[in-house]
Design goal:
The active site is at 54 (proton donor). The protein has 4 helices and 5 strands; from the N terminus they run αββαβαββα. It is an alpha+beta fold. The termini are far apart.
Length: 128
């Protein structure tokens, strides 16, 4: 368990805006340069506009010019480690986030690779 990312994700989770699902999620991602960026889920009355914690963390980094990442950690108040949705997996693939740590608030954790989370994922990389 990466305790720095875990604490950062738990702190971000406190700002989750979840009036509809009441399911708060926090995420923290470490860039290759060592900086840590965080995100929480932000919901909307137009439900489809909701953005997950993982994507908000990644986008917070990208808008600062960061594109090289080490590890992303996600946490929520779940029985077992929480697992990212498909849209977030696709965004992780876009930025080559290959190490992902799934956790819950109790401290259970499971490290997985992007390959495990998104086998046969869509990419245009080979066309560049
Ligand atoms: N959610 C996340 O933020 N990350 C996940 O990995 C799973 C789902 C959010 C979206 C929505 O606000 C709430 O959890 C319930 O789906």
């Amino acid at each position: 368990m990466d305790l720095i990312l875990f604490e950062a994700a738990k702190a971000a989770r406190k700002n989750a805006y979840v009036p509809y699902s009441h399911f708060a999620v926090g995420a923290a991602v470490r860039a290759k340069d060592g900086r840590v960026f965080t995100g929480c889920n932000i919901e909307n009355a137009s439900y489809g506009l909701t953005v997950c914690a993982e994507r908000n963390a990644i986008f917070a980094a990208v808008k600062e010019g960061v594109r090289d990442f080490e590890t992303l950690l996600v946490t929520a108040d779940t029985e077992g480690p929480v697992s990212p949705c498909g849209a977030c997996r696709q965004v992780m693939a876009e930025f080559g986030i290959s190490h992902i740590e799934l956790t819950n608030l109790k401290g259970l954790s499971q490290c997985v690779s992007l390959e495990e989370l998104l086998p046969y994922g869509f990419t245009l990389k080979e066309k560049e």
